[in-house]
Structures are given as structure tokens and as C-alpha cells.
Design brief:
6 helices, 229 residues, alpha/beta, five-stranded mixed beta barrel, single chain, binds adenine
Length: 229
């Protein structure tokens, strides 16, 4: 098994890089990829940078250069449901791009034209494994749609619109771009996001306060996942 792991920020990947044995680094397309092993599992991990474009670049280069069998996007997200509080974890059933909008042409908001899909499905086996690991860690989690967009959501009205349109449980800025690249390349993927804020007016204070701890919990679940292969 070779597992690809992508986080947007250093705090989302640091614990994973620290857990690697036989560590090597390589730069490809301007992004640093760290390879190594967790137990018997080969791992390639990277910090992609914030937003959908960096995330897509990173996933595509990773797939071409390192050919992972599956890709996990780990990190933090804003909660869109009362069922997920700060410190809890959202695991993808599907991912959507909430800011993809050709509705003026008659399409549903979120439609990815070339694929003719709004929702891209994450890999059930990978996601169920993560959910079992989170259960053992005693972390409350929910599986549902994770919505990505090039926007830090910190406004009740914006949040409500994303929930109304996509019934999403968490928002972030990279997962659906990684999901799109993986779908096109037929690589199974999963997005796991620990809640750092509630994507409302308090998010600007909550995010810097809780992101590092939340990111570490998500990374630790992914380390356990890698160790299970
Ligand atoms: N990542 C963590 N919190 C977020 C939010 N509120 N909006 C977008 N991305 C996030």
C-alpha cells in the first residue's frame, strides 16, 4: 500500500512527517513531497498550500510522480452542523465545490461541467476505516458532505447557503479539489477534517485558537490508518 497524504498547512502535516521512517524529500512542481514509511505502509505526504488551485496542483503532481494507491486529505474545517463541535471530526461521504457556479447557464450550483457531477464520492472503505479509528480514539465524528471553496467562511448567511445547497457538514478550502483530481485519475480518496471553528462570526477568533490541536488529532488518526495497512 502506498498512501498519499495532503494537508494545506504545515500544522496539518507535521505529525505525519515526524512519524515517517526512511524519510526522503523531493520537490516536484514547486511543492515538497516527503516520502517514507509508517509500519509496512509506504507514505508520500505534502503541504499543498491554501486553496483549491494549490490543492489540485499538489494532488496531480503526487499522482504522476509517486502513484499512490489512495489519497487522504487531512486538516481542519469549519463546522456546518450542530452535531460537530470544535475538536470533533468530519469524514467525507462526498465532496463538493460550493463556489463552482455556472447557474447563470442553467446548471445547478456546484456542478463540475467536465464531469457533470456536483458531488464526488469518497472511498467508503478508507472512510469507514478512519471512522473506526476515531471511535477507538474517543473522538466524536460524523460522515457527510464536505464543502470546499476559495473562501474562509465566517458569516452565518454564507454558512446557511452552503448548508441549504449541499447539506454539507463541514467547510474547508482544498478537499473537493483533491477529490476532483483523484476522481479524474481514478485514485480512491478520503477527506478528514477536525473542527477548528463554527464557520460563523466567531470563526476568526476560534480558528487561531483551536486549529493546531484539531489538526494534530486529524493527523494522528491518519497515522493510525497508515499503520493499519
Ligand atoms: N478551515 C477551517 N475553518 C474554516 C472555515 N471557517 N472556512 C473555510 N475553511 C476553514
Amino acid at each position: 500500500m502506498k498512501l498519499g497524504i495532503i494537508g494545506a498547512m504545515k500544522i496539518e502535516v507535521d505529525a505525519i512527517a515526524a512519524a515517517l521512517t526512511e524519510k526522503k524529500t523531493e520537490i516536484c512542481g514547486g511543492i515538497e513531497y516527503i516520502t517514507g514509511k509508517i509500519g509496512e505502509c509506504e507514505v508520500v505526504c505534502a503541504v499543498c498550500g491554501v486553496g483549491k488551485v494549490f490543492a489540485a496542483m499538489c494532488a496531480q503532481a503526487m499522482i504522476i510522480r509517486f502513484a499512490p494507491d489512495a489519497v487522504v486529505n487531512t486538516g481542519v474545517g469549519g463546522s456546518l452542523t450542530r452535531e460537530l463541535s470544535i475538536g470533533d471530526i468530519a469524514v467525507s461521504s462526498t465532496v463538493v465545490q460550493h463556489d463552482m457556479d455556472t447557474s447563470a447557464l442553467g446548471d445547478p450550483v456546484g456542478l463540475i461541467s467536465g464531469l457533470d457531477l456536483v458531488h464526488l464520492s469518497a472511498d467508503d472503505e478508507l472512510c469507514n476505516k478512519i471512522i473506526a479509528i476515531l471511535g477507538k480514539m474517543g473522538i466524536n465524528c460524523r460522515r457527510g458532505t464536505i464543502a470546499s471553496g476559495d473562501q474562509f467562511v465566517c458569516d452565518g448567511a454564507v454558512k446557511a447557503k452552503i448548508v441549504e445547497r449541499f447539506s454539507a457538514i463541514a467547510c474547508e478550502m482544498e478537499g473537493a479539489a483533491i477529490g476532483q483530481v483523484c476522481t479524474v485519475n481514478r485514485v480512491p480518496f478520503c477527506v478528514i477534517r477536525a473542527i477548528s471553528d463554527n464557520a460563523d462570526t466567531g470563526a476568526c477568533e476560534d480558528f487561531p485558537t483551536f486549529a493546531a490541536k484539531a489538526a494534530k488529532n486529524s493527523a494522528e488518526a491518519v497515522i493510525t490508518l497508515a499503520g493499519s495497512f
